Amino acid sequence: MKKLFLLLAAACVTLSAAADEGMWMLPYLQKMNAKDMKARGCKLSAEEIYSMNNSSLKDAIVIFGGGCTGEIVSPDGLLFTNHHCGYGSIQALSSVEHDYLKNGFWAMSRAEEIPAPGLKVRFIRKIVDVTSDILGAVPDIAGGEERSRLVAEHAEAVKSRFETENPGMEISVKPFFGGNQFFAFVIEVFSDVRLVGTPPTSIGKFGGDTDNWMWPRHTGDFSVFRVYAGPDNKPADYAPENRPYKAGKFLKVSLNGYDEADFAMIMGFPGSTQRYMTSYEIDRMLEVENPQRIFIRGERQAILKEDMAASDKVRIQYASKYAQSSNYWKNSIGMSRGIKRLDVKGRKQEQEAAFRAWAAKNTLPTEGYVDALDKIRESVEENLPAFASRQYLQEAFLRAVEILTPARYALMLKGEELERALKSFYKDYNMPTDRRVAKRMFQIVKENCKELPSVFAEVIDKEFGGDTDAYVDYLYDNSVLADETQALAAAASGKDLAKDPAVLLSRSVAQKMRALSEAQRDGQQKYADGHRLYIAGLMRMQPKKAWASDANFTIRLTYGRVLPYDPADGIRYNYYTTLKGVMEKENPANPTEFTVPAKLKELYAAKDFGRYANAAGELPTCFLADCDITGGNSGSPVLNARGSLIGLAFDGNWEAMSGDVAFEPELQRTIAVDVRYVLFVIDKFAGAGWLLDELQFE
């Protein structure tokens, strides 16, 4: 175990070398990155970015909701994030009468800010390396179930200790480098978060699915919220008397813009990368995982799109669901394309061959490095049938057939708790749409999934002659959970729903999912051992390389430059776009994605850009930087060399969609909305300039 500790310590003192790859851990900035960042133009010290004992830039960055980043931009808890990050809350607060998605919303005083039920903001208060606490008593030779058990026990003990030492805080203990290192995070959670402002979809989602993951981009992807606290400035449930959170640290805002090659950095919560993925896993991704996801989601999205176009009520109900599904659907398409086009598998195979040669020459068989890749390969091969079936059921049933959600509630919840959950669910549920989706999902599961839930043989085949459409009609005609009134009445009366058709379906699917998970358990243990040893071996094989752990939705820093790029021979993409491009993209034939509000046209025609114009008199909308981000970084602040806000990261580019598996330094770009466009929309378009009085400008 001491060897691994020394190995990780060595990795953390190697200065960053080429390219801009790296989602860097904040505690190691001084050792790993400070010198390189300064050479690139950063004016802040590592201590100013992250400090263990003092206020630092880190304290202005938050987890927004369940999977995005936000930043505090005023002393009174004002928060910027992406429009698509706030989309779920904006949708939940919308109705046909108050369509904030379509028309936008702007509070003209703090009294008009709207509570967003269920929305939470999390501040990282402390980060501690607990590797020795968790791995110190784990024998080097331990593996498989034994190792997993010991690590889990020690991690739980660490979590319990931190909970005792930090009352009222949320504690998260997470593995890094495939389980070779562990950190504990002390998190303060605020649950009174209020919507302050959002542009209409025609600005906040301009370009829609067509422009998603594409450059050039002209999307005003931002929304504004505020964090509220109790009288003691501590987290408190919503109450009218709560007051704006008094921020110990907030970001200054820059109106000075940027030039090509200027330093830029991003701090946020990248969700997941697989940079240590092997060629065996790439085969599974290209041949099974992505094709299944692309097909299933595409089939469901086509149905949702039709129903949303036919009804404003359904459009509002399903807007967030459609957007969440579509985003990763297109990501999977681009990921497969990029991996093939850039021969990522070939590069991984070269690395694996070098690793095998190194391990055979420089390590003992008892250390496990020689067998690491074989363990990964065997795990992937052994688990593939169960993996494929489980993913199919996950996508086609649990992510698509919505009646399974209240069915699960009925199995888990009782009384008032069940009633609350059902009321929340049915607000955004349209039974005819769900019935249409279910018919398609049952058809494709029967045709394509090799491991079927028992409901197919015991009910669909026996009682309906294999006719899945007939079964689905029976399901929705006879389940009380297909109707809000009946469902709430059943919950209020305490009716036993064990024999309800939807509950029986839910149990059947859950049983098959558990069986498929169990079938993969031994292989997953084998994979965990191989993955951990492969990463440790790579670091031992190249001790002078600066290694970064895969993203796991923990706070990271990435830095680079504002840069254009060449997507193909003879094509050069500029590093920023302007409002002119919004006008050029207007397309009456595609009003869902390319509508331009009349007020925006008026401001453009008058060139009424105010202090938000650049030196050339243009209004910048979006820009590029070669920073290393992924999902979860949405809403992250893009900062200049002095740590001031110049934009909000919201996307990556199509040509480098393989970046979660292999960083592409020549192609990979972060797409960000320019903060000057954000402020222009707030001030000139929305007339909510009172909010800007809270900001501090550099």
Automatic annotation (TrEMBL):
One of its Pfam families is Peptidase_S46
Keyword Hydrolase set for record: yes
Q: Which GO terms describe its biological process?
A: peptide catabolic process; proteolysis
Keyword Transferase belongs to the record: no
Matching entries from InterPro entries are given as: Pep_S46, Peptidase_S1_PA, Peptidase_S1_PA_chymotrypsin
Q: Name one GO molecular function term.
A: serine-type aminopeptidase activity
Q: What is its EC number?
A: 3.4.14.-
What keywords would UniProt list here? Answer: Aminopeptidase, Hydrolase, Protease, Serine protease, Signal
Signal peptide segment: 1-19
Protein family: Belongs to the peptidase S46 family.
The protein's job, in short, is: Catalyzes the removal of dipeptides from the N-terminus of oligopeptides.
The name under which this protein is listed is Dipeptidyl-peptidase
Organism, as annotated? Alistipes timonensis JC136
